[in-house]
């Protein structure tokens, strides 16, 4: 699939988005772009204006990436102040309310009695586990983890997870739905805090903080080292496949043989800082000039991400090796 091609068409569905915060609004833009109708629940009276602003802002890049199937962004949008009205008739529900387990359980108890029996509900939760979420349901058979990366309308990845309490086929159906909207999915096979991608970025950030704390490099230089170095490669391939290429004709086996001692030495020397107030202040103080303009930085990020995604959006399967 080329960057200009839309994802495979799927029949229009009615989708419920529970939560109109940053993540919920971004999901809403993506679902509308995919041609679905969306009922968004959020009790905040300012929700409609904020959602419409997000959709309008996201639409040009979604169109550039070939992810829009309609020319009228907000025509399928309904705003609800009652979650039961939002899930009425929904085939797919994306829950993105704040990450407080009690608040989520309260919402689940409200919508479960009126949720269509065939509906799939996915939580965007990043800090809570599926087991913790399931505790808020009488029957969690159709609940999955559907964790995006911010902003969900732009970053392709969605981590999907079920477990032994999830009905057969629900994980596959959730992945198929996301992929029909242009997403790239992975399956989390065992429950761990932070799932997969968050743990990977947490590991990198931990060492970034350690390098700053030890005076090895500034905050700005560490960020530059990532963005202008390995970060560029990671946008194209994952670390193991890249190191496979680093072994030349011998591939990963040669790479491991050649660099095992180096990596073991580096791993033994990695730091283990904690994000305490003093560390947070050091990082904040180390940010470069102009970083206080969050809206401008977000626009720069999104423009650069769109260019990278457009270049890497196609089939990422590596060519067959001999």
Tell me about this structure:
Pathway: Lipid metabolism; butanoate metabolism. This is 3-hydroxyacyl-CoA dehydrogenase. InterPro entries: 3-OHacyl-CoA_DH_NAD-bd, 3HC_DH_C, 6-PGluconate_DH-like_C_sf, 6PGD_dom2, NAD(P)-bd_dom_sf. Keywords: Oxidoreductase. The protein has 322 residues and is of the alpha/beta class. It folds into 2 domains: 14-187, NAD(P)-binding Rossmann-like Domain (Rossmann fold, 3-Layer(aba) Sandwich), CATH 3.40.50; 198-288, N-(1-d-carboxylethyl)-l-norvaline Dehydrogenase, domain 2 (Orthogonal Bundle). It has 13 helices and 8 strands. Strand 7 (157-161), helix 6 (170-180) and strand 8 (184-187) form a beta-alpha-beta unit. Helix 10 (239-246) packs across helix 11.
Residue fraction in strands: 5-15%
Number of helices: 13
Order of strands in the sheet with most strands: 3-2-1-4-5-6-7-8
What structural category arises from helix and sheet content?
Answer: alpha/beta
Low-confidence stretches: 315-322
Tally the beta strands: 8
Corresponding CATH architecture of the largest domain: 3-Layer(aba) Sandwich
The general outline is globular
CATH top level assignment of the largest domain: Alpha Beta
CATH superfamily of the largest domain: NAD(P)-binding Rossmann-like Domain
Pathway: Lipid metabolism; butanoate metabolism
Family: Belongs to the 3-hydroxyacyl-CoA dehydrogenase family.
GO molecular function, one term: NAD+ binding
Keywords: Oxidoreductase
């Amino acid at each position: 699939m080329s960057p200009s091609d839309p994802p495979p068409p799927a029949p229009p569905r009615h989708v419920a988005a529970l939560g109109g915060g940053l993540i919920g609004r971004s999901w809403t833009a993506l679902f509308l772009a995919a041609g679905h109708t969306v009922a968004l629940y959020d009790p905040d009276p300012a929700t409609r204006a904020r959602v419409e602003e997000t959709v309008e802002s996201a639409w040009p890049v979604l169109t550039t990436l070939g992810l829009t199937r309609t020319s009228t962004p907000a025509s399928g949008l309904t705003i609800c102040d009652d979650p039961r009205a939002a899930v009425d008739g929904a085939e797919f529900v994306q829950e993105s309310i704040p990450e407080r387990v009690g608040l989520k359980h309260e919402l689940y108890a409200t919508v479960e009695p009126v949720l269509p029996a065939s509906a799939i509900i996915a939580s965007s939760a990043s800090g809570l586990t599926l087991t913790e979420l399931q505790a808020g349901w009488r029957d969690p058979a159709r609940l999955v983890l559907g964790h995006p990366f911010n902003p969900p309308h732009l970053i392709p990845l969605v981590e999907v997870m079920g477990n032994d309490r999830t009905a057969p086929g629900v994980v596959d159906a959730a992945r198929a739905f996301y992929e029909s909207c242009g997403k790239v999915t992975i399956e989390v096979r065992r429950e761990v805090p932070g799932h997969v991608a968050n743990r990977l970025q947490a590991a990198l950030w931990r060492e970034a903080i350690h390098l700053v704390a030890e005076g090895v490099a500034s905050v700005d230089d560490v960020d530059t080292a990532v963005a202008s170095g390995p970060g560029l490669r990671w946008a194209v391939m994952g670390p193991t496949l890249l190191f496979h290429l680093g072994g030349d004709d011998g591939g990963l086996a040669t790479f491991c043989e050649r660099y095992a001692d180096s990596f073991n030495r580096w791993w033994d020397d990695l730091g283990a800082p904690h994000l305490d107030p003093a560390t947070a202040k050091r990082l904040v103080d180390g940010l470069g000039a102009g970083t206080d303009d969050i809206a401008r930085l977000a626009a720069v990020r999104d423009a650069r991400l769109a260019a990278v995604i457009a270049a890497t959006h196609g089939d990422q399967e590596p060519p067959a090796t001999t």
